[in-house]
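Objective 1.3, modelling of assemblies. Example input:
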Amino acid sequence: MNPGFILFLIGFALSGFHWIGIIVAGAGLSFFGKSIKTKVLYGAVAGVTVWFAFIAYTLSVGIYEKVAETGSIFNLTVFLSVLLGGVAGLITSYQTDYR
Amino acid sequence: MKLRQLKRGEFLSLLSIALLMIVVTPLTLYLDLFAPFGKFWKYSEQNHIELDTPYGKAVIDYDDHGNPAIEAENLRSLFYAVGYAQAKDRLFQMDLQRRMMRGELSEIFGASLNETDEFYIKMDFVKSAEVTWDYFRNTEFADYITAYSEGVNDYIEHGELQPEFKLLDYRPEPWTPVDTFLISKLIAWQLTGDFWDLERAYILKKLPQAYELYPEYLNHSYPIIYSKIPNINRSLLDWLKQFEGDRSFGSNNWVISGRYTASGYPMLANDPHLSLTVPPVWYRMHLKSGEFEVWGVTFPGVPVIIIGQNKFISWGVTNVGADVIDFYAYRFDGDRYLYKGKWLNVEKEKKTIRVLKDGELEEQEVVVEKTVHGPLIEKYGTKIAVSWTGLTATTELKAIFGLNRARNTSEAVESLRWFNVPAQNFVIIDRYGNTAYYPAGKYPIREIDGKPVPGNVIFNGSRGDGEWRGFRPYGVSTWEGFIPFEQIPHLINPDYVATANQRPVFDFRYYIGDSGYFADPYRGMRIYEMIEERIAGKGKLDVDDMIEMQKDVYSKPAEFFVGEIKQNLGRIPFSEKSKEYVNLLLQWDYRMTSDSKAALVFSLFLKNYMNETFHDEFSSAGLEKDSYPKLWILQNLPEDSVWFDDIRTPERETKWDIIARAMDRAVEEIEKMGYIKYGDINVFIATHPFSPKVLFMNYPQFEMNGSDYTVYNFRYSYRPFQAGSSWRMITTFTDSSAKMLGVIPGGNSGNYFSENYADQLEMWRDCRYIVTEVGY
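Predicted structure (tokens):
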């Protein structure tokens, strides 16, 4: 299995306990990116994936509506997921070779 | 050494790490809380909890509405589990309330609550709770109260804290038995901590002719039982008002004996009117251990049922409203005060307020001062001592335990001997057909030179005038200077009785409060009227009748005031514009329903009628609207009363001129604001303590029926909360069971994420109930 994907899975699992997991997952998935842009995009996708998992969790414990009604705090979860994942995508940009 | 030039990717990689560190470091708190799966979102609904307490096993089972049924091997494990359940559902509310009483609010909310803390520290409620706990230490109840505290602390240590703690980023201190008594003192203070005596003194100083507006009695015929001023100033009163109980709090309860019920068993209804808060003031629970079984509601922080039922009896309460607080002025000489010919030192103790400022705690010193009568309040050039019956060791908890265990009305009444403060109108029924009414509490007898005097004045503390014999603030009182329990007017086995905070009895030999302390009689009248109509009609009442009565929105003030307009229509110079609105009133059925335009007109007319009558005199004397007299006084003023004359005009206005003017003001307000029905102003708005900074924890808003003066009670104005029926209960017995219908305005859980956070709101609005039925 691709090491980047393994790192993503580890990060994904870790995100259930700590937000560091989003960074790890973002960094892991960004290995699939070939340019700075795609790496950031892959990182953000990892963040969004974690966010969807979070939504699934809130649905499973029956608090989704309450979570959504928090308004700006709910929006913050999306923002933080994309921000952390996207910036984490840059971590693997050392692979790119532009001077 | 020359460093290698970084590739762009390497540079970006390092930059991203730096960015993460820069972004993440200040955001750590937010990330910890609000990132997906962050602490703020941690929640799991637990409907079945098994506890291995140090005293035995206990099981907590929640019903669909989040009401816990707690069963345990013995009473200690039972109360341990009660503490655990209350902490799980209401810990933030409990912590906030004890912080208020301890003067620790500014420690978490900042300097804006500094003055509140200062007041509560100066009153030294903590000391009164400590002496109460000292009293209980050597009783059988000490083990239960201790077990309760341990249960709370078990949850604090091992349970998931409510979102509020996470938002404020603090962990509550361990719960102690003293905290339980602080909650008890808080409730008592909210119901009887009243600065009316000071305000009355100020009103009469500024407007001596207002004496007639605050008579000793309101001259009505519906009592419960048928049959030299110190420098009080506006600044002091405004400051004190923040900390006194809501004077407009009222409540209803009534009992119907089996003689007038279809089942032949007595029935009881109760709805205490308190602040409508988020979460609600009451917490519903059902407790069982061996023969001990009781259900109903309590205040979070208190282990036993305060209003409820067991297999033998049921009881309900309303506030008597009696005057159980007095004020004493002295001759001072520096830190000494004159008391009965001797100069005594003011007792002083330094305490500290911790105030949150810019994330740091700053300490401020507060000096607590006391005299022989109680704490000294010094503000705006006035120094006055306060005696309040709750400032000594009090034994309400013993009385309530007694009610929880009572097996008939006699045992219940006997336990009320221990009920000290706040004086409450207890109504009790038992399954054997007995009924009782007892306004239990400690009522001080004031004397000057050996003669009884009313307590609605400020006493000369230096002479020892009016002081309460046997009362020891912050100690254990012997109470000999109080009305003996047997002499408190009461009823045993009445066919029916209704209390709605009206004066309990006329022509009682002791002073228990002037008209400022007791409610207008409208609700009491209406309840008696409904009972008697039903008895005269169908003869026997059933539970549906009790529900209909709790739903009743008929306004007695509307009947009186609109009735008077009807009778004097030709004499009232209504404007052309007003006449269309007056016609609405004339065709109205006097029901305060949200869809009624007439109810809207009447509500605003009444407010303006009061204002148009008294504003001129009161405002010119520097008095505020909240000093206006009771509605009953306005209703009964003769038509040529001087109060109807507007002192700002050369003409002599009469009652009819003022009614016309008030109607014009009401119409102007309706048209200006675009109101079309009563529900446009009568809106339920209950806010969480974090509001307006955090809005999502507020309850949903909706239009309401009812008013301050209807049995279905709702007050839309804030003081500082809206108020209304904080718990609706109907209880009775059958051949084989005890039955309770009950509902609270909100949800039993204080946890925002719980499905029981607000699930009873609509039921409460519509007078639908959750039924508890327990077989014998």
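The helical segments of chain A are 3-14, 20-30, 36-60, 64-68, 72-89.
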